[in-house]
Amino acid sequence: MSGIDRALFIGRFQPFHKGHLHALKWILSREAEVVVAVGSAQYSHSFKNPFTLGERLEMIATALKEEGLWERVILAAVPDTDGKHSLWVQTVVSLCPRFRRVYTNEPLTRLLFEEAGYEVVGIPFLEREVYEGTKIRRIIAEDAGWETFVPPAVARIIREIGGVKRLTELVKLESKGIDK
Amino acid sequence: MSGIDRALFIGRFQPFHKGHLHALKWILSREAEVVVAVGSAQYSHSFKNPFTLGERLEMIATALKEEGLWERVILAAVPDTDGKHSLWVQTVVSLCPRFRRVYTNEPLTRLLFEEAGYEVVGIPFLEREVYEGTKIRRIIAEDAGWETFVPPAVARIIREIGGVKRLTELVKLESKGIDK
Amino acid sequence: MSGIDRALFIGRFQPFHKGHLHALKWILSREAEVVVAVGSAQYSHSFKNPFTLGERLEMIATALKEEGLWERVILAAVPDTDGKHSLWVQTVVSLCPRFRRVYTNEPLTRLLFEEAGYEVVGIPFLEREVYEGTKIRRIIAEDAGWETFVPPAVARIIREIGGVKRLTELVKLESKGIDK
Amino acid sequence: MSGIDRALFIGRFQPFHKGHLHALKWILSREAEVVVAVGSAQYSHSFKNPFTLGERLEMIATALKEEGLWERVILAAVPDTDGKHSLWVQTVVSLCPRFRRVYTNEPLTRLLFEEAGYEVVGIPFLEREVYEGTKIRRIIAEDAGWETFVPPAVARIIREIGGVKRLTELVKLESKGIDK
Amino acid sequence: MSGIDRALFIGRFQPFHKGHLHALKWILSREAEVVVAVGSAQYSHSFKNPFTLGERLEMIATALKEEGLWERVILAAVPDTDGKHSLWVQTVVSLCPRFRRVYTNEPLTRLLFEEAGYEVVGIPFLEREVYEGTKIRRIIAEDAGWETFVPPAVARIIREIGGVKRLTELVKLESKGIDK
Amino acid sequence: MSGIDRALFIGRFQPFHKGHLHALKWILSREAEVVVAVGSAQYSHSFKNPFTLGERLEMIATALKEEGLWERVILAAVPDTDGKHSLWVQTVVSLCPRFRRVYTNEPLTRLLFEEAGYEVVGIPFLEREVYEGTKIRRIIAEDAGWETFVPPAVARIIREIGGVKRLTELVKLESKGIDK
């Protein structure tokens, strides 16, 4: 695997926002090719994970094509393993093109990949307090100027699929502690 | 969804060969964008499904980049639902970017999508008796001039991952009727 | 499906109480036939879901037979999909007789069925603060006059299966935050 | 459980035909109430299991209502456990109202329930060589006078859901040995 | 099963500490043979369940061999059933050698086995406030004299597999409420 | 892991017969300690896999204790992964104590462990045509002098659990091609 010139960038991308785009550009400045792996792939319709995998793949692919970054990216998807963490790294390996290095700021992802012998690199996120998933989902739910936080393609798709109404409902469920 | 200008092309791609490439070009001559969905995503290391999803995504992405077709494609993956066929179409919908039309020659896929109200289009495969997955896997197992049947990127990756040895072993298991 | 004169009434029915019976009668005053779908079908032996699906089916069937409502009802069961909400509506459709309209007060059920294009109708529950599942389960756990809250058949079955002792234990686990 | 006056009748009911109806009447001549448990609940769209659970529940409920047998029946459903046979009896017990006796001609069902200590009773099927699921499915696939083999309600529902076309396609897949 | 002279001792053993060893010796003073069943078998890499099943089996087996207790023990493992509690006792029965009596202080385990007709015996734990799993995991995370709480074999294995570093990371995730 | 002086011996052990015992003794003549891993752990009550995991663990543990081999063995269990072969080696690693070398004659097990970088050693089975699982199961089904093929403890347990009757029934199902 020594000759593989490809890195893994893993996240939930709920939704894919400008902080993610900034991070991806930084990784692409260091790596020839990047596997963007969409995590928690099986979940949707909760405040934490509002969008389906299909919706997230469409957002990311469309945004990266518009940004001219698509040529050096391969999209992949990885489900959560419901607490079976000892299988998670091998699950990622089975589902993704080969990679040599992992980019993540998520501590458990780091722990698991380091135990498996991988090099893990932290990401200098863009204005972390601004471009943060939970915050952006709340702003979408209120339909209050959220379009500036995401690439244009992502904003367009969220509009088309009724994502604002969905998040408005999900934030209500969240506040009542209801999870079906 | 009426405005969606995207089609679905679904297959197992074990491996992605020139017949698939030919079919994809034909679909791209009719559609603006194509979701290439890799089916039976969870299986590998059997004669029918020798390659992991990650290996197949790497083969397809690399081949399409070399062919200059990547810009109008989005890769996705769909697991088999183990006989729970009534959930399969919705599983595909959840895991893939939106699409308006389905291209397949697989009869059960056609039946399920037609029952769900989708337009399904058959594919004029290139020399079907030559470019056929089972046959190509047997030729790889014998390591007998198989490279001409697949795009150069696919041949390179099969070599790198030890795919010939793997298929040689799997064809032996197949012939003994052994499936672990 | 336009000719289907049947509605869906979905709930966990832990247990089936007089509020549910009241709601069902109201729905039957508007619909020719009702599918009573028992949700969270796979769970039992927790304070939130004390009774097995089999126990709940027996309670509901016996109560509806005694009430003379059985002739216009079909019982069905639906498991939770563990956060895979994008598959939930199709799961319900696969597991239940055809229906044209959905009766529920549960917000996520409403959201999911509305996104799938179904008409969803709210239910005027009987004295919601009295006939409320959590409250009734607590009263059963204390064995304090709970029989008046449920149909006679439900009370009889809860006694027969040792449901009071079970709830007494489960409420203790709940208060300690223990869930095996 | 000694006082329970209820029996279990388990089958796949693909579809529910006059042989099943005859068997149910015979069981009802001996038992006060019968749980009709629909097995292989999760499967559909194969030649062996063409109809979804929802379709089968609708067929059985509608037929039994028309026959005036509904009052003494409770419908339930049981999935296959994919070879985990040691959990199957307890799965049935969890998903069904309490029962004291099991009616079946299926040898593995008999073995498992007998090992668990249940009384198992064989069923005198009506003209077994005529009313046999596989044969009836083939006749439906050919659309050749199949209505006489099933209750009128079942025939009507099969027509409404496009069951003849579905079986025509599935029998073709069966003959090619294709199972997606 | 009346002649079976074997008991079940069930726990998560995260990790196997001197309190567990003390309890096992007490059970062995009353029983001819003991099945030590490792629960929550599928989980690892969380603060509540840091060690894999394999690591726990190795710790217990090595400790019991060094203690001279191995000859009268059989190790087994039982996964959680994710809220499907009605299947749990039968799952244990299927996965473990036959046993006649259950030793546990866990209330839900007691409830489930008692409903299934088993005799359940409480365990006089050694200085419960000292030998308590959560407390011992915190002390390991701080690497502060934890070796005295566990058998020497367990301490050695935790060192070898990097268990201190793992727990140090997991306690941080726990305190942030992060669970991947 | 370099210091680990332990090997893996993996099989289905349906049942554990004298060929397995012979093989284990041979492995123990070369290794300090052996993990005996019972494969296809979740299956039972089919002709290929008649005995539950619990029954197999009891047979193996009792036999090895009587043979005086228990002190150098650790029992473990591994489920099949239903065709997800790319996760199988890591599943074994997660569920078993650490091991350095794998003993097996099963070709797919060999392929998967070799691809993962393990040393795999073949086993010189005792009179392979005599001590072969399928053949021994047929002889048990006929109750024709099978006790000489298995260790005394195994024979005793098969008698106690009604294993002969079970196999007699299962061989009938097998011959009819019935698998529930």
- Extract low-pLDDT stretches of chain A: none
Number of strands of chain A: 5
Biggest sheet, spatial arrangement of strands of chain A: 3-2-1-4-5
Oligomer: homohexamer
Largest sheet of chain A: 5 strands, parallel
In words, what does this structure look like?
- The structure is a homohexamer of 180-residue chains.
- The first copy, chain A, is built from seven helices and five strands, in the order βαβαβαβαβααα.
- Chain A is an alpha/beta fold.
- Chain A has one domain: 3-Layer(aba) Sandwich (Rossmann fold).
- The first copy, chain A, has a five-stranded parallel β-sheet, sandwiched between helices.
- The longest helix of chain A has 15 residues, at 53-67.
- The first copy, chain A, is globular.
- Chains in contact: A-B, A-C, A-E, A-F, B-C, B-D, B-F, C-D, C-E, D-E, D-F, E-F.
- Chains B and D meet through helix 4 of B and helix 7 of D.
Quick rundown:
With 180 residues, chain A is an alpha/beta fold. The first copy, chain A, has one domain (6-174): HUPs (Rossmann fold, 3-Layer(aba) Sandwich).
Properties at a glance:
homohexamer, 180 residues, Rossmann fold, five-stranded parallel beta sheet
Helix/strand layout:
The structure is a homohexamer of 180-residue chains.
Chain A: E1 6-11, H1 18-28, E2 33-38, H2 53-67, E3 73-77, H3 88-95, E4 101-103, H4 107-115, E5 119-121, H5 133-141, H6 152-160, H7 163-175
Parallel strand pairs in A: 1-2, 1-4, 2-3, 4-5
